[in-house]
Amino acid sequence: MEEYGSFIIFALIFTEYLCIPGFPGGICIPAAGVISKMGNLNFFMAYFWGVIAAVLSQITIYGICVLFHGTVDRVCHKYSFLGKAYNRANSFIESRGTVGLFIARVIPFARAFVSFPAGLSKMNFTQYLFSSLVGTGLYMLVMMSLGYFATELFV
User: In terms of DSSP H, where are the helices of the chain?
Assistant: First the structure.
């Protein structure tokens, strides 16, 4: 962990934010805090690389949605669960704009999924990036801190 910890955190969080079914999302960020507390990883480096990984992953999904709009839209509506989640996230973003995106970035399930409707609606990229960076940064700080300060519960 001392040698490759930042790379491992980067890879896990990047993958987590890609919304891959079956990937254990939600545990990587607090786990980084636990590992930091144990002295095997610098907290601030893990936080920095975690935020960078999350935002790059969010940009990837946004870009895929913009470039392959029709295909992604069909897939989102093909499965009822995805269609319902997509419609909820889309109406949330449409009604609240960048503030809605920011709020969604700090809500556990919505934080990763909200990139799809933002990309499909071709939200202004600068506003998308800023809201994503601030919301993700806040969420990751809270979750890593919880892992850091609650290490005794996990170890």
Answer: 5-16, 28-37, 43-67, 69-78, 80-104, 110-113, 115-120, 125-149, 151-154
pTM value is: 0.85
Q: Could you tell me how far CA 133 lies from the centroid of its own chain?
A: 10
Question: Each residue of 30-88: pLDDT tens digit?
Answer: 988 988 898 878 899 999 999 999 999 999 999 998 999 888 878 877 777 777 777 77
Provide the domain count of the chain: 1
Q: Are 76 and 83 in contact (CB under 8 A)?
A: yes
Q: Which tens digit of pLDDT belongs to each residue from 129-146?
A: 999 999 999 999 999 999
Q: Where in the sequence is the domain holding 45, given as residue range(s)?
A: 5-154
How many whole angstroms separate alpha carbon 18 and alpha carbon 99? 22
Are residues 65 and 128 in contact, defined by beta-carbon separation less than 8 angstroms? no
